[in-house]
Amino acid sequence: MKKIKINDNRTKNIVIIILIVLAIIVVFFLSGIFAVKYRVSKEVVTKSAMVPQQIEWMDEAYEGIIDINEIIEKNTNNQTKEVIETQIVELEYETQYKNNSNLPKGKVQVLQQGQDGKQELIIKKQYIGEELVSDEQIGRRIVTASVDRIVEVGTSNYYDSHKIKVGDTVYATPYELDIKAENKKGAEVVAKINQNSKLKIEKKKGNWYYVNYDTYYGWVESDCVTYIVPDTYNYNGNTSQQSKSQLLKTLSKNMNLNKPSGLTLEQFEKIFTNESKDKNGVFKENAKYFYYIEQSYGINGVFVAAVGIHESAWGTSKIATNKKNLFGYGAYDMNAYSSAYSYNGYAAGIDMIARVLVKHYLNPKGTSIYNGEVATGKYYHGATLQGVNTKYATDKNWANGVYTWMKYLYNRL
Q1: Series of mean pLDDT values for 10-residue runs along the chain (413 residues)
Q2: Number of structural domains the chain divides into
Q3: Angstrom distance (rounded) from CA 236 to CA 238
Q4: Which domain holds residue 207?
Q5: Considering the entire predicted model, what is its pTM?
Q6: Do 172 and 318 belong together in one domain?
Q7: Contact of 88 with 120, CB cutoff 8 Å
Q8: Is residue 349 part of a domain?
C-alpha cells in the first residue's frame, strides 16, 4: 500500500485547515460558557448606550465600558471569578422644606407631591471557588427620575388645634392637585385644580377626603388641603403639650413606633439643646425635622433620631460628615462609603429614612400610609424595635443600642 507523504503541500494545507476549524470550535464553545455566566455585564454596556442617562460609577477606576474579555481572562487563569449583576430598585424622592412665618408653628402643608423613580444598580461580585468574598456596588444609573416633594412648614408663634371635619370648606395647597376617582395612588384623575382652589369636604376615610369642586367629586389626600383661607392666616392657637412624666409612661422597648411620640416642636428642640455628645451640632440644628416627619408620616421621631445617633455616632461618622447621611442609607456592604446616598442637607436624609421605615418596616402590607401610598410590608416583623431589627440590621443587638438612645433622649425632656 502506498503511504501518504505528510510533506505533500496539498495534504499539509488540508491538515492546517482542519486544525484551525477545531480551534475555532473550542474557542467558541468556551466563550459561550463564559458569555452565559457574564451576560449581565454585556447588558450593562448595551443599556447604557441606549438610554440618555449616564452611569454614575462609585470609583473612577470603573469609568467607561467594563472589559468583559479581561474578566474572562482573569477567571480562566485562577480560581477567582468576577460577576457583574444589575438590579432595578426604587429611587426614593427627596423632600424640600420651605419656611412660612404666616403658618401655625410646626404645621406642614404640601406644595408639590413627591414621586419615586427607578434606578439600576451595578454590582460586582467576586468568588473564590464557590465562596462569595466580595460584594460591591460599582455604579448606578437613573432609569426614571424621581420628583421632589416640596412642603411648607409654619414658623409663627402659634400652634394649630383645628381638626377638619365633614362639611368644612378647605383650600388646595399644592401648585397643582389631582382629584381622583378612588382613594388610592394611581387612581384615575377626575380633575386637576390649581393652588387655593375651594373645596368642600363630603366625607373622610383614613388619610383621604372625598371632596366637591364645582361639578366634580373625588378624593384628595388630607395633607394637600387647609382650612385656612388663602392670604388671611386665621387659625386656632393651642400651645398645650404633654409633660415629661406623661411621655415617659409611653416609653418601652415594645412600644409601637408607627405613631408619633407626642413631643411638641419645642420638646424636640429641648432634647438636643446643650448636648455635649452632639459635637458638630448636627442634631440640634436639625431637631425640627424629627418633629416634621411625625406630622407627615406618623412615625416616632425620637426613634428615628436614636437610629441616626446609633448609626452615625452623633453625626461624626465619615458618611454623616461628608454626605449629610446620618443613617448610612444606600450603603452597600463591602463598599459602604462609596455607595451611601449623598444629600444636600441632613433634612432630606431624615425625611427619606422615615418614609422607608414606614413603607417597608413598620406597617403590614396594604396599610394606607402617606402620599396615597400603601405599605409594602416587605420587611415587616412588627412595629417594635425588635421587629425592625429583624431585617434592618444584621447586628442582633441593634435594637438594644437604639433603645438606649431613645431612653436617653426621653429623659432629657
Answers
A1: 50 70 62 39 32 57 56 61 87 90 86 89 84 79 89 84 89 92 89 93 92 94 87 53 91 95 93 96 96 92 97 95 92 73 92 95 91 89 96 92 97 95
A2: 3
A3: 7
A4: 163-226
A5: 0.72
A6: no
A7: yes
A8: yes
